[in-house]
Structure prediction request, 277 residues.
Amino acid sequence: MSRVAPTSGSKLLYFLCIFISGLFLYMDLNYKSFEGIKHTYKAFVVSSNYFLKLVTVDLVSDLHQMTKQKSQLIAENKKLKLELDNSYLDNFIISNDSKFFADDQSIQNFLNLNKITKTFHLAKIDYFDAEQFLCCSKHRFFIETFNPHDLDFLDSPVINKTGILGQIINTKSIYEVLLLTDTSHVMPIFSGNNFCNARGSGNPGLIQCTFNSLIWEGSVEIGQEFFSSGMGGVYPKGVLIGKVSDIREIEENIFEFDINLTANPLDSNVVGVIENL
Prediction:
């Protein structure tokens, strides 16, 4: 059977709760007895909210900002590296100390022929089979210009900050560069009044020339410098190509000599393409 009216014990408990609640309210209103507890509670709530925000929203935001700043820093470093490589090539071409050209007149002739303030277009090496370069006779690499345009770079010389590397032989999809050391490459060079067609040796850093001592003026000496002749319309005249490193007689009055190149294609991933003269 359910109870309809509260018992005396229930009533007593009810009035006791009202009395205690009133007592707490009276003490709080008159004596601020629970002021410290309320402040502590409020401080706890504020601290908890701050801590939760710190480990959730702020943490995610900081991680995102750090990632963004890192990406910006990487992009900025790449830009600065590109500008530095560009300045290296600029200085190498026009500096008298670099010996890229034989003399001041060669530099001036080169600039006059181009009729432009920018003598080259910056490019990067996309693919270079270094193993084939070091072991075999076919020496090629493939490049991509940083600023594509409608200029025809077929047969254009390719350089880096150490000197002439070769010429572009294919522009259909990606630019293919034939290096000076490739056995199919021939380059007219000179020293003094003597000229010869230097062929790639198939060995890194080495090209070869032959001459007939009966018609050759003077003699070839170890350390003698040879320069590009400008004949053939590919390479500018007066560029230092390399120095004689070895001389040998292959037939009567016919001599062959090796030239160590000043340019090294492994020196840099950034190259310059000179507009076809």
